[in-house]
Amino acid sequence: MLTILKCLISNVDAMDIVYWSFIFLSLRYEVSAQYLEIQAKPTIVDPTQDDLVILCSTTAASDIEEVYTIQLKKNTSGTISYGVAVSSVEPVWFDTVLQTRATAIGSTNPPSAAYLKFTIPKANIHCPDDFTEYWCQMYMILNGTNSSTGSDHEDTNHISVSYKLEPTFMEKMRVRILGEVTDTANRKFAVGTALQLTCTGEVGSEPNNTIRWCFKTAYAFIFTPLPHVPVLSDASPSGCQYIRSSTVTYNMTNSDIFTQFLCESGTPGLCETGTAKQYLKITSAQPSLIETPRVRIVGEFSDTAQRQFSVGTAVQLTCTGQTGSDPRSTIRWCAKTASAFTFTGLPQTPIHSEASLSGCQYTRSSTITYTLTNSDTYTEFLCESGNSGLCETGTAKQYLNITVSPAAVTSSTPPPHQPVAFYARMASTTPLQHDHQTLIFSKVITNSGDNGRDGVFTAPLDGVYGFIWVTRSHAAEFHLMVNNDKIGSSRSSADSDGSISGNVIAHVNKDDMVFLRASTIGHVTGRVISDEHGASTFSGWIIR
Fold first, then answer.
1. Do 529 and 474 contact (CB within 8 A), yes or no?
2. Which of 214, 107, 207, 225 is nearest to 167 (CA)?
3. Which CA distances in Å does 47 have to 98, 161, 166, 212, 274?
């Protein structure tokens, strides 16, 4: 009988192997040992990097006298079907469609190393059809078997091959105002506007994966999860990935000066750890325009251009401008006297007009009444809107300088001459863009003379003056100028950002202009530093 089977296998037509498998099955002995194993390499496949490989191979090989055929079976939509087989002839394909995108190699001789290796290259993998259950089946003759009784047949247990794929693509976020039927390209909205934000993209190889939403406001350092519950679409397969959309509804607030949103999928965990992500920046309409403040003496009917008043004069100061997208927002008033370093909020209660809508912004006016005192030798007022908080943090602002008449300032001992003094500091670090650059000291702290915001002191009287400048600088040379004449200088190193100072005592005529000029040393780009760690300053006063 064994000799007859050998002859049948050696002469069988390739497509008849299944038929002969049934013959073998009808002739088989029950095999208690395991002579065939199945392996998937790997068992979890990344279709972007891995081929799908199934290996059928013999074990306990010394017990096997001869192997006739090894076959691979596959669960295709609930139906067990034969894919490919090897015997003493070339591999035989039962699934001709699978044959067009897979390869198979193998051998049944010698029996101790009989195998079948089935491979689907990563470029040809079909998701999810190829990720299913697989079996190996073998027909053989065992050593010591009575050849007259037939062959042995054995099936492996099935193995399940799965895949895992991280998402890599997310469409750009879409924005729609709640209640409208189309998306909008606008990214600036009024406070109180309800927005629908939608993301659509890959979520990976599991249909229950979702899209995560995070956000970060202007004053936050990191993204945090949005507390809003998203509305998710059903996941639909697309190749080896599932795709779904996610929508959240968000109401704009005053805190949304500059808010970033993030939708992402993959790697569930902290915000910004996803493998597919999209960002969106949205702002609320912030004020940017305030008119120049108007001044009116209390009791009069028209505004005045005068900015110097007697002690005790009551003046009305009025600012009109944008206040943002919230009709409840107002204009803030601050002031800084000659001896103060920073602006502070005015205690006076302003009178606000009704807010009127103009485009995405509300506009209103604000008026305070202020009575001048001896302290107002040089008082700077500030009206501002936007970013309600500390003075000078608004997004729309205007300044106004008011002084009291020198003759009106009461003093037990009259001064021997008109006091002239100024002290100003640089508002921020200034790069030196060209030689002979005039430095601007815009933060005026003391001014009993005429030091404008352009950094130029104009002497109001003939006399002997003292001037001092202190600069934190890098690679710069400074010259104190009276009109076109250089009367003093200082120089900083190109190797460090150090502080240097200079002082000059000189006779200056009335209406002479005194200012500090800077140039870069060599080919190094110089700068003058002024920040919270140390300011660059310029001061002067009349001696006699």
1. yes
2. 207
3. 17, 12, 10, 24, 19
Residue 425: closest CA among 449, 464, 448, 451: 451
Q: Among 43-52, 58-67, 206-215, name the one with the lowest average pLDDT.
A: 58-67
**Angstrom distance (rounded) from CA 373 to CA 195:** 51
Q: What is the DSSP letter of 420?
A: -
Q: What's the pLDDT band for 450 if we cut at 50, 70, 90?
A: low
Please state whether beta strands 437-438 and 513-520 pair in parallel, antiparallel, or not at all (unpaired).
Answer: antiparallel
- The candidate with the shortest Cα–Cα distance to 443, out of 528, 336, 347, 291, is 336
10's enclosing H/E stretch is helix 2-11
- Report DSSP state, residue 27: H
pLDDT (0 to 100) of residue 236: 93
Cis preceding linkage at 42, omega within 30: yes
Range list of β-strands (E), 329-442 = 332-336, 344-345, 351-352, 356-358, 361-371, 379-385, 396-404, 421-425, 430-431, 437-438
Quick one: pLDDT band at residue 145, thresholds 50, 70, 90?
Answer: low
**pLDDT digits over 506-530, tens only?**
998 888 888 888 877 765 567 888 8
Q: What's the CA gap between 53 and 70, in Å, rounded?
A: 16
Alpha carbons within 13 A on the beta-carbon side of 253? 5
Q: How far apart are CA 406 and CA 418, in angstroms?
A: 8
* Average pLDDT score, the chain: 84
3-state secondary structure 132-167: CEEEEEEEEEECCCCHHHCCEEEECCCEECEECCCC
pLDDT of residue 10: 40
Q: 409-440: per-residue pLDDT in tens?
A: 444 444 445 678 888 888 888 887 777 788 88
Coarse DSSP helix, strand, coil percentages of the chain, rounded to the nearest 5 percent: 10, 45, 45
Percent of the residues in the chain that have a pLDDT greater than 90, as a whole number:
44
Give the strand pairing for 44-45 and 162-163: parallel
Q: Where are the beta strands (DSSP E) in 410-542?
A: 421-425, 430-431, 437-438, 443-447, 457-458, 463-474, 476-482, 485-491, 498-508, 513-520, 527-529, 537-542
Other C-beta atoms closer than 10 Å to the C-beta of 69 total 27
Task: Report d(CA 294, CA 303) in Å as an integer.
Answer: 7
Residue 345 has pLDDT above 70, yes or no: yes
**Phi-psi bin for 267: left (phi > 0), alpha (psi -120 to 50), beta?**
left
Going by DSSP bridges, is the β-strand pair 463-474/537-542 parallel, antiparallel, or unpaired? antiparallel
Structure tokens at 486: 């250089």
Sign of CA dihedral 349, 355, 361, 366: negative
pLDDT at 454: 64
